[in-house]
Design brief:
mainly alpha; about 50% helix; globular
Length: about 525
């Protein structure tokens, strides 16, 4: 019997799943998700990612069962699984979404493609984002993105039952995280996985919380509610970017238009969806930026000067700058901080601590529940100043604390020792006199201190970092190489219709609940 394999990857949903729709149109299907030991052994994988995925798979299993389909979860690297399945029950087609993942998943896909060629199996990869495979430059990229987002969402064929093919062996349950070699503890307060929770968050954001989006997403306190919190569900495909974008457009064009502040929040969020794919496109176009400087003229800037004590202080949340250490504490518990605080963490690592973006990026990849390789590595390089085309973004953690947490509510929430610090010393507690420390019952500085002293003088270290970065940037050969990077990775202007003039988007019934 001829049948198709539907290979679920980072698209863990039933709705708007074009690969599944095409497979069902072609005939009987076998739906599978591979728990791939090789991928979970990579340095950017963590326990929280794996457990989140398992939660998503439970939701997907239930969704597929509701339409007469079955999800098989197998523990095997994808090429090995395809070989074993083909030997036991030959198939003619594989359907999946395109994936722009890390280097290991890229090599995995190359291996699957070679396997398909060797066995005469057609592999149909369907675009999932507005990312263009094989795109050489960005001239028409935005127009292509808006075209993709405006297409109707994919639905399943109308049928009382779908033809499914059983797995020709009994597969044991997926392993636990430790069996896969994942040693990190799970995050006790992270978001739970699954489409049901994703839809709840999306509905509450579009209906109400997006009113706070403009102006609220920079504050580490307000951003918890002001942000959509949809990012991990987009990363693992519990939601499609298209359905989220169309839900935003549907609300903007509704009969009861949003108030100006609400509309501004929806517009700003819609632009972030565009940037989401813009950054993933960078890794799709140039996979090596996960490992090497986007502008190779910056090679050697930090590589030979790794400072283990600086890296250890950052990872343990003992830099001495309260806002930095509070962000690390929040990440340790929840797997999330808002974008501005992420940018500040990378900036502090790259400039005053003078750390290379690669080890910092691997650590943060395991800390971010919503780790998306295309966005992550592009941002690591942009915030570290090695793209060659972006303005240097150098965040002062003391200024950020004054601007974003002026009353110290955030740092006191996440750093218990800071609750004893008087407001006078809130932003620079290491300057607190010894008698004041004694009166407050605190020790500042030293190996066993309640609050560490910064390893470097912030002003001096940042000034020296700027001198080195800008001296390199001024070199003629470095400046000359910038144009080619702009052609490949730079954004282009695309004029869209003004807010309030967006044509209505046909939205499936389930999104009308928004």
């Amino acid at each position: 019997m001829s049948y198709s394999v539907v290979w679920f990857k980072k698209d863990l949903r039933l709705h708007d799943h074009a690969a599944l729709r095409q497979a069902l149109d072609a005939g009987p299907v076998l739906c599978v998700f591979c728990v791939e030991p090789h991928l979970w052994r990579q340095a950017d994988a963590s326990t929280q990612h794996y457990r989140f995925v398992i939660e998503c798979l439970r939701d997907l299993w239930s969704e597929l069962r509701s339409v007469g389909l079955k999800l098989h979860v197998v523990t095997a690297d994808a090429p090995d699984f395809m070989e074993r399945l083909f030997a036991a029950s030959p198939f003619k087609r594989i359907y999946s979404h395109q994936e722009t993942g890390n280097g290991a998943s890229f090599q995995r896909d190359i291996a699957v493609a070679r396997w398909c060629c060797a066995h005469g199996v057609a592999w149909h990869e369907v675009p999932q984002f507005g990312v263009q495979r094989g795109s050489a430059n960005r001239d028409a990229w935005s127009r292509h993105w808006h075209g993709h987002m405006s297409l109707p969402q994919s639905t399943l064929p109308t049928a009382s039952a779908h033809d499914t093919v059983p797995l020709p062996w009994v597969e044991p349950p997926p392993p636990d995280a430790l069996t896969l070699g994942l040693q990190q503890p799970d995050k006790p307060r992270r978001q739970a996985g699954g489409r049901a929770i994703a839809l709840q968050l999306l509905r509450s954001f579009i209906a109400d919380r997006s009113r706070q989006y403009r102006g609220g997403i920079s504050s580490p306190l307000r951003a918890v509610d002001a942000c959509s919190r949809s990012s991990p569900y987009l990363t693992w495909g519990c939601l499609s970017v298209r359905e989220v974008w169309q839900a935003v457009q549907y609300r903007r064009a509704s009969e009861a238009p949003p108030a100006p502040k609400h509309l501004a929040g929806l517009n700003a969020f819609g632009s972030r969806l565009h940037w989401h794919c813009h950054f993933i496109q960078k890794l799709e176009s140039e996979p090596s930026i996960e490992f090497h400087n986007m502008h190779r003229g910056y090679d050697g800037l930090r590589e030979s000067e790794h400072k283990p004590e600086h890296f250890a202080a950052l990872v343990s949340g003992r830099t001495g700058w309260p806002l930095v250490d509070a962000c690390v504490a929040m990440l340790r518990e929840t797997g999330w901080v808002n974008f501005r605080m992420r940018a500040m963490l990378v900036s502090v690592a790259a400039y005053p601590l003078w750390l290379h973006w690669r080890p910092v990026g691997e650590w943060l990849a395991t800390e971010f529940l919503d780790y998306e390789p295309g966005i992550h590595w592009s941002q690591m390089q942009m915030q570290s100043g090695t793209t060659g085309i972006n303005t240097a973004r150098i965040y002062n953690p003391i200024k950020q604390a004054r601007d974003q947490d002026p009353e110290g509510r955030f740092v006191r929430e996440w750093l218990p020792a800071m609750r004893k610090v008087p407001d006078t010393w809130l932003f620079e507690p290491w300057r607190m006199p010894a008698e004041m420390q004694l009166r407050c019952g605190l020790r500042v500085g030293g190996p066993d201190a309640d609050i560490p002293t910064p390893l470097v003088d912030l002003e001096r270290a940042t000034r020296l970092a700027k001198i080195r970065l800008f001296a390199l940037r001024a070199q003629p050969e470095v400046k000359a190489a910038k144009a080619a990077i702009v052609r490949q990775h730079g954004s282009r202007t695309f004029v869209r219709k003004r807010a309030g003039k967006v044509p209505p988007v046909a939205v499936p019934a389930q999104l009308e609940l928004l």
